[in-house]
Amino acid sequence: VIPLGVCPPTPIRDAQAELCRHYDLDEEVPIITCISRLHPKKGLELLIQALASIRSPWQLVIAGDGDIEYRQKLHKLIMQNDVQPKVKLVGFVEGSEKQLLLQGSDLFALTSYSENFGIAVLEALAAGTPALVTSAVALSKQIREHSLGFVCEADVESIRVELVNALREIEAGKLSPDPIRKYVTENYQWPSMATKLRQLYQSICGTKTTPA
């Protein structure tokens, strides 16, 4: 299996400051972002409930769209947990706005019950943003083995524990983006994927000759 690749993102100057201005966020508080289809399988309720139980400062931006009934359910959950000042549902994003979220956030979170790959996670890692994912996300193995972020199970307590760890490391400045970007560049950008695909086809054809 040759996985999907990503294009290198165009760096945005002062991405976090620009993100804070764009969404009226606090520059002094860690920003957690989730870009996802709004659907029960994505475990957004787990993420919201886990964050609601954490005393440390945080902000959550959820970008994506879904059925109106589910969006209303999320709004109700946010109100019930009294975290409405800390959570922003900003709808579908793409292009420069999506890159602003990926590059300006301190942590990318995807707490899915099941995820066959997780391209948004890879895009966040390509921007140098560490990721917090459940073990049900296909990229969780790479994240754990190469210290690209945090891996938890799809339950509130497990997510809470790893969020606390992530927020602690963010505050301590221990999460450098450079090793994360380097790993993605070497393993998931399209030139690397093209080389792997070429090698695969050559092995199937029983030849080491590269066609013109």
List the helices and strands and how they pair.
Layout: H1 15-23, E1 31-35, H2 44-52, E2 59-63, H3 68-80, E3 87-91, H4 95-104, E4 107-110, H5 119-126, E5 131-134, H6 140-145, E6 149-152, H7 156-172, H8 177-187, H9 190-205
Parallel strand pairs: 1-2, 1-4, 2-3, 4-5, 5-6
Characterization of this structure:
Helix 3 links the parallel strand 2 and strand 3 (87-91). A 6-stranded parallel β-sheet has the order 3-2-1-4-5-6, with helices on both faces. The two termini are 24 Å apart. It is 47% helix and 13% strand. It has 9 helices and 6 strands; from the N terminus they run H-E-H-E-H-E-H-E-H-E-H-E-H-H-H. The chain has 212 residues and is α/β, with parallel strands linked by helices.
Please describe the biggest sheet, giving its number of strands, its sense, and whether it closes into a barrel. 6 strands, parallel
Q: What is the share of helical residues?
A: 40-55%
Q: If you compute it from the alpha carbons, what radius of gyration comes out, rounded to the nearest whole angstrom?
A: 18 Å
Q: How much is the average pLDDT?
A: 94
Please list the strands of the largest sheet in the order they lie side by side. 3-2-1-4-5-6
Strand runs, count: 6
Order of helices and strands: HEHEHEHEHEHEHHH
**Strand share of the residues?**
5-15%
Helix run count = 9
The first-to-last residue Cα distance is 24 Å
- Give the helix/strand class: alpha/beta
